[in-house]
Design goal:
Blueprint: H1 2-19, H2 22-41, H3 45-65, H4 73-78, H5 80-86, H6 91-120, H7 128-152, H8 159-186, H9 192-220
Length: about 220
């Protein structure tokens, strides 16, 4: 199982880096979308500092969604997905590996860029570590939940729109607890409850999402 996971992970990363677009698009969208808020709201430091956690989280979720519809699409179109379904390796491990590759490409760069954007948006430095911790717990869950939506809409017309409609409501708890963790740090309250809730979401998504997505992929390839 470990060998299958590593092979699929390395394969997807090589294909992504060979194209070289998903990472750049995710980071560029994240930065541009976040920078639109000061232009629309104004340069007042107090207002920007108050909305900074929400702005960073919302734009991070949207950036992570950019490549969700392509998570299984290329393999579906060239027939690789059918071979993965028919192979003796558990399809759940394949889904988990492809989801991990998606997070490394679309989630990890966003985590790296998030503190810089937070500082630009005048967020106090006391919220940076909780922001990074919350996003480290929340963004993998975003990729896992997104894998379910990508599998359910595989082969459908306008799959990107359908994925957004399916997964955005499921991202609401991650958004709430992620922003609440940063707000708690900024107001001197305990961050631990919010991080524990984000960890619980990740712990639930980690086993459930691969099985659900794998079942949807089997149905799509019949």
């Amino acid at each position: 199982m470990t060998g299958t996971f590593c092979k699929i992970l390395v394969r997807d990363l090589r294909l992504t880096f060979r194209q070289g677009t998903d990472t750049v698009l995710a980071v560029c969208f994240f930065i541009i979308a976040a920078m639109l808020f000061p232009l629309g709201i104004g340069p007042e430091a107090n207002i920007l500092a108050r909305i900074a956690p929400g702005v960073v989280w919302v734009t991070a979720l949207l950036a992570a969604m950019l490549s969700l519809d392509r998570l299984f699409q290329h393999d579906y179109e060239d027939g690789s997905l059918e071979l993965m379904v028919l192979s003796p390796a558990p399809l759940e491990i394949v889904v988990l590996a492809k989801t991990a590759a998606h997070w490394l490409v679309a989630g990890l760069p966003v985590i790296v860029a998030a503190p810089v954007l937070a500082v630009i948006l005048q967020m106090p430095v006391t919220g940076l570590i909780p922001l990074i911790a919350a996003m480290t717990l929340g963004t993998p869950a975003v990729s896992l939940i997104g894998a379910i939506g990508a599998a359910l809409t595989l082969g459908a017309r306008r799959g990107g729109i359908l994925v957004s409609l399916l997964v955005l409501p499921l991202y609401v708890p991650i958004l709430i607890f992620g922003v609440a963790a940063v707000d708690a740090a900024l107001t001197g309250q305990s961050v631990r409850p919010h991080l524990l809730l984000l960890g619980a979401i990740l712990a639930a998504a980690l086993p459930l999402a691969p099985f659900t997505a794998a079942a949807a992929l089997r149905q799509a390839t019949r």
